[in-house]
Amino acid sequence: MTDNVSPLNFHLVEDLESPVAIAEILMRNIRNRAVHINAQISIGVPPITAGNPNPPVHTFDCIMEKLKVFIADDHNIVRKGMTRLLSTFERVDKVMEASNGKELIRLVQNEQPHAVILDLEMPEMGGYDCAHYVLDHFPDVKILILSMHAEDGLIIRLMDLGVHGVLTKSSEPQEVETALYSIVDNDFFKSKIMDKAVTTMKKYPAPQSQYKLTNREMEVLLLICQELSPSEISNRLNISEKTFFNHRTSVIIKTNSRNNVGLYKFAIQHGYLN
């Protein structure tokens, strides 16, 4: 690895499957991030924009809400590094750890978090089965998969399951932070690997829905796919949030989707998005 590292850079490494290599990246970026944020604070720049010359333009409904985040990864050194990284995120107030899916579920049963971050390959219970259980029993908990695998077929399976976002372990810390806030506030996060997987799927015939979306429902669908929050969509369409959620529920039923991730997949498959 080179010593010329930007404050929020999360470099790819040749031996990415090595927990030690991943942890080494995490620890370096935690140190760099802490130094950079302190420097930003000292000159009066909000930490959330640190290292990002073009911060996101849209706001979140719950910008001041502090988040509880649980993480499950069987590699102790990676898990500890991720925990320390998450603790540097401005909105994260509490982080709890588990070494496998079963431990994570016990934590969630005891105290419901805003989001969980899951590795896929873990002993006793992996991330896929854990996500399935959490989605069925705790539908308000958002799920972010953080894995070394990015095969299109796997990503589609995860999206069909209903997970709210998928990133690789080579993602930059800023992207992890953005994804976390997006799944909590907007119900999903469009990552590059999700875009690639869904775009690849377009070559196959899309299942036809027996229901036709109204013009208003189509507007709601497309704005959801732009990752706008409920209040932003409501303001854009000049409707109440209650009316927005009524339209969203109707679209979810008509498209046989589980959540906003499913709606995004539906829109891509049917050619409503480029």
CATH superfamily of the largest domain: Response regulator
How many domains, in number, for the residues?
2
Strand percentage lies at 5-15%
Our Rg estimate from Cα atoms comes to 19 Å
The secondary-structure element order is: HEHEHEHEHEHHHHHH
End-to-end gap = 37 Å
Mean pLDDT: 82
- What is the CATH topology assignment of the largest domain? Rossmann fold
- Given the C-alpha coordinates, what overall shape results? globular
Q: Indicate the percent of residues in helices.
A: 40-55%
CATH architecture of the largest domain: 3-Layer(aba) Sandwich
Uncertain residue segments: 1-16, 39-63
Number of strands: 5
Q: Biggest sheet, open or closed, and with what strands and sense?
A: 5 strands, parallel
Q: What is the CATH class of the largest domain?
A: Alpha Beta
Helix segment tally: 11
Strand order of the largest sheet: 2-1-3-4-5
Strand pairing plus helix content: what structural class?
alpha/beta
Overview of the structural elements:
- It is a single chain.
- The protein is an alpha/beta fold and 274 residues long.
- The protein folds into 2 domains: 58-198, Response regulator (Rossmann fold, 3-Layer(aba) Sandwich); 205-269, Arc Repressor Mutant, subunit A (Orthogonal Bundle).
- It is 49% helix and 10% strand.
- It contains 11 helices and 5 strands; from the N terminus they run αβαβαβαβαβαααααα.
- The chain has helices spanning 19-42, 76-86, 101-110, 127-137, 152-161, 173-186, 192-201, 215-224, 230-237, 241-255, 260-269, and strands at 67-72, 92-98, 115-118, 142-147, 165-168.
- The protein has a 5-stranded parallel sheet, with helices on both faces.
- α5 links the parallel β4 (142-147) and β5 (165-168).
- α1 (19-42) packs parallel to α2 (76-86), α3 packs parallel to α4 and α9 (230-237) crosses α10.
- Mean pLDDT is 82; it is low at 1-16 and 39-63.
